[in-house]
């Protein structure tokens, strides 16, 4: 067929006979058998010893094709080994000259499946494949596919669009993987989005594939960073910032100095990575990070855009925010004001740099955001006063109460707190982490006191996926409170349901939580929640799917009519035990 002709097209250029030549010989001859024998002699393997061996193989019924194929495979293996050896021996110019000559001779056979691996192997070992050959490979889908990544890199570095087509599905997959973790049905305060260590995360499929595609090629690395910046600007999705840091650290793990030494963020990212691993910024590393920020020279301010993107990675923000809460607690114990703590001020500086990443990259104005004095002089002392309220309440509970009745927990929130959460991004971020902190401590009083402040927050941060993912995990520690009407009303009616109808993601998180804790909720409350959470026509597949799962779980909980009529004969009421399926 036409495929065959094309496949063997290169042989004639090399003076090697092919099927067409045999056809021609047979068409123009008087004794076909003699002609075939002659063709075999001229084009067979030229080894005198084979003259007798071949008829012997014929007697054993081994087809000539099989014999030639095995000789050929053996030779090809030897040739591949030889090519790899040439690539390592002798003077650099000489070895590449040899390979280039070999490529010149063999390239015309690149379409022959049997020869293709050899041609590909030669190209793989050439640091610069001739432009003409690269163009031919690029123009042919199958050849391009068969190419080694070393050759593809040479094609990609001058074809950003083609490289973009290869990278794009990987970036989509990465974002999807992150979202799947945030919406996972497994809810736990032990295992959450931030649990995997940086080293573990860098072993992920997408990071590994991108690392492999980039190799040591700075140009490709820069292109990927450009894609990430552009996508971050277009979508505001912070997971692209995580990938920016993971990619750099993956190249760091492999000691690719060609790239690490030219990325001005390398040392900063490396230091921050160690903090993320410990989920805490200790004093020594704080000094180091501060040194990098203070060391940004005049005329090099653009590096702030990159540093801000590294700091905008949710794993970095999580570490900075957790460290801030820990520092505030220490300050309460030491009777020190926030403005007197340089470590705390540095954490705030990095938080605002990270939170300002999008604006900086968007405006291309590279300077550190100004820290609002009120954040330090008013908001943080407010948080510290909450910590003090908790201490006081706990101590009061333990004191013998004579004539005074029990002291109630303070239930009002200072208006300033609510206002800060609405108007100041950094205050909001720290405030939310403080609420996660008290939830994790099972401090129901403090949680219910501050919860109303979450209904309206800066850019709806309290309804963001990362916060809701962490909150739902921590709420499992308060699972016994879900039996109480007051608690459920505050949490569901007062917080979650205020946003469910306008925010699909909130609807999903509430359903996740109920799937996990429905057996703890009072039946009457559960029924009203089931009504309130019913999907609308606009609801997406994920919400409908979760709602149906919840419905099935609740069906399983209802006692069957038979059980109800027999109930009086039993001594004990039926406990509502979660069925195994409900976990």
Automatic annotation (TrEMBL):
GO terms for cellular component: NELF complex. One of its GO terms (biological process) is negative regulation of transcription elongation by RNA polymerase II. Residues 557-583 are annotated as: Disordered. This is NELFB factor. It comes from Rhagologus leucostigma.
